[in-house]
Amino acid sequence: MSLLRYLARRAGLTVFVLFGVTLITFVLTHIVPADPVVAYLGDHAPPALVAKVRHQIGLDRPLPVQYLIYLRGLLRGDLGVSIADTRPVGVDLRQYLPATIELASCALVIAIVIGIPTGIVSAVYKDAWPDQVARVFALGGTSLPVFYVGLVLLGVFYFRLGILPGPGELSIYTQPPPTITGMVALDALLSGNWEALADALRHLVLPALVLGYAITGLIMRMMRSSLLEVLRQDYVRTARAKGIREVRVILRHALRNALLPTVTVLGLTFGDLLSGAVLTETIFSWPGIGRYATNSAVSVDVPAVLGVTLVAAMIFSLFNLGVDVVYAYLDPQIRYT
Amino acid sequence: MKKLALVVIAIFLLGTWGVAPGTSAGYGPQQTVVVAKDISDAVTMDPNLCYEESGIAADLQMYNTLVKFPIGNLTQVGPSVASSWDVSKDGRTFTFHLRHGIKFSSGNLLTSDDVLYSFQRIVNLPKDPASWLITQMGIDDKTVASAVTAPDPYTVVITVQTAFSPGAFLSIMANPVTSIVDSKTVRAHVQGSDLGSAWLNDNSAGSGPFQLAQWQRQVTIDLVANPNYNLGPAPTIKRIVFPNIMESTVQQQVLNRGDGDIAWELTSQQLAAMKRSSTFYVASTPNLAMEYLAMDVRNVPAFSKSQVLQAVKYAIDYNGIINDLIAGNGTPLQGVIPKGLFGYDASLPYTHDVAKAKQLLAEAGYGGGFNVELLASTGVEPGGVSSGDLASKIKNDLAAVGIRVDVRQLVNAEKLGLYRAQKTQMIIQSWFVDYPDPDDFAKPFADYTQKSLAWRVQFYNDPLAQLAEQAGGLTNTPVRAGLYKKINDGMNQDGPFAMLYQPLLAFGVSKRILNSSFAFDPVNFIDFTHLIKQ
Asked: Which of the residues in chain A have pLDDT under 50?
């Protein structure tokens, strides 16, 4: 019951956070001296057309009025219309978000599958060669620029060896599956289009690896340092003194406690992946929200920037909440009040 | 149980690995041309609304206009939907005689009703970035009904409402914004006040050789042959795909792997590599565009003196910019009309001459130089050089003659905002063709009353403005050529624009595409109707 009450309270707080996010983003996008109408119409449009479009969009109204109109729409679930592509922002987000969620989820799975075991090995064999190798590997993930890793992997596996497909979600000659979730691989699975599924999975491998590798290092290092910390604790010494096998000491006694900080990082990292996949999306021609966010910011597309920020804030809040709930599972000492 | 599930998943994944992508879209690689291009600029496929390169590249294949420029010849329009036309003596009324029997992809016949409806759409579609091409001639939502009329199903009469160049008018009639849509089909799909625009993003209603199979934003534009096309011979290519490939390195890889046939946005280094290759060739032509440096003649007192403007033009190392910075991806240009258009002036009066520049500055009373702020964008300029690098080069060149430049890089929207508000001192910018007539270049650069480029840098030169106005009202005759010569000379002498170069439009093409069949120009882009793939 206390958990339910806690969740309700957090949900209430999230509403305030989201309201604050819209207000701050709205003010920031209007402080920027760039003109969204000029960005949309370009260099050639005569001044009269600029004035006409500014009026059509409502940008000639006082700022508080514009914000109130935006909030009124938001309460009805209307995120406004993108200035740059003239479509409702909600429609844009429904198109671009699933592609990024698909990519980011695969990247996160790769990062967990590689990062956590490597972190454990690294901590257990501290300063020995497995640790050294893992640390160099992690260093690469955190320090090599994503676009460099992306281009190298694409160059090797697609261009040189030809064992993985090039950019995009599907090959040109593959019939795309009907849109159900917007995630191509999942849609192919749901519609039983095995050819498209195979093609989509093959297309996912490289971008997910590139994006996953960028955070593997972070997760591995976090896992390593927190496990080392835990392994120095008294209860671990006690467990060892009781004659419990080392593997069991690490996996049963130490790991569960060492996972707490890593879970926190995972939660926040997923939010980063959603908004920070822009370079991977550019190189692999992935039609995700990262590029949409960047394009919107560059063209001062205020409704689109607000929409993306709002969704990113919601995802961050959701994941933070998820992380807090997972805490209770991992550490029974944590109680929600 | 868990182990069993894992084994099942592993077998499934391995099993699907070997499945090769088929040709489920109907046409195989032999009949398909894949154009690797960054299509993220495309925001609509509605031809009466479209003003972005990728959208236009697709719309040109799906729709026809009253007249069109023959590919490779941008000096005189030729027939298309209209087989002929008459111009009234005052040059304001144009009577177009439409061909009989042209079919839309729906099978409907193209008549004057479709032309009227298309013009209605251009001026009534909300937020139309291209509508100004038509409204500048006084044809707007209020006047369109009387300005564009149809005495019979195969005649259209258009009366320009303001004084406007007949040559420029005809070249606008060749612009894809005036594409003729199938009015019956589009009317059947109108939602609210959108005039069928939403439907035209997923479908096409044109009489061009191709029709829209699918447009997935940020993913692909997919065109297939229009079985009802009868305005010319049916193309041998049956499918054109523009996959969205944003990185030029990746575009090159896609071509190298044989997954693509044409790359649209290769860098000059990549193009040079392709020229050496045995499996590719490079097709290039000067684009109808120019990169220029503009100087505000009021915000910077020094620029009010012609000698200072000339000194800047002498101080710039044009060859260094073209040969080193853009690695040959542009050609020299110093007039206001680019190569390829009527009125182009090939003379290059300014060469890199530091001594001459210093002498001119001294004569103007600025021997000790002066300070000036140069605005550049954070992006890339046509020709493939980053705006910041080009600004650094200009800064160095001007420093050599004593002009101290402070470079400020801004996002394009902010830079343009300042430029349009007359708030710059010096700015690096490019200008692209809207309609291939010298009027589209001479007026913005020389005629401040247009409130375009000359006005933005407060260059209020009445004689040049009048010349541009006068030349605009003529057809391509020796008299018109003489006027443009005067404008080019006057702008070189007193104009606040230093032309840096004319960028190239260059494609990397697989040799599977027969070189002799690959025709293109900066207005029609690629002519897919005659393309032969081996």
From this structure: none
Per-residue model confidence as pLDDT tens digits over B354-413: 999 999 999 999 999 999 999 999 888 988 888 999 999 999 999 999 999 999 999 888
Residue B13 has pLDDT above 60, yes or no: no
Contacts of B429 in chain A (CB under 8 A): 43
Contacts by A172-179, CB closer than 8 A, 24 or more apart: A172/B25, A172/B32, A172/B34, A172/B220, A172/B241, A172/B243, A172/B259, A173/B21, A173/B22, A173/B23, A173/B24, A173/B25, A173/B28, A173/B29, A173/B32, A174/A199, A174/B21, A174/B22, A174/B24, A175/B22, A175/B24, A175/B25, A176/B216
- Enumerate the residues of chain A whose CB falls inside 8 A of the CB of residue B44: 85-86
Tokens of B502: 């004319």
B191 CB neighbour count, 10 Å cutoff: 10
Pairing mode, strands B370-377 and B520-521 = unpaired
Element (H, E) at B319: helix B318-320
Inter-chain CB proximity B220 and A172 less than 8 Å: yes
pLDDT tens for B53-91 read 999 999 999 999 999 999 988 888 999 999 999 999 888
Split at pLDDT 50, 70, 90, the class of B12 is very low
* DSSP letter (8 states) at residue A88: B
Tell me whether residue B328 is exposed, middle or buried, using C-beta atoms within 10 angstroms of its C-beta: 0 to 12, 13 to 18, 19 or more: middle
